[in-house]
Input
Amino acid sequence: MVDFSIPSEVFIYILDLFGTMAFAVTGAFKAIEHKSDFVGII
Output
């Protein structure tokens, strides 16, 4: 059998990256929705 276990620190780091990415994407969509300029989207 193959052991697919990962250290908990790596798992938390991956969750943190996904959370940051989710907030960045939703924030960019909100900026586009409010017709913000390019700098406001970035």
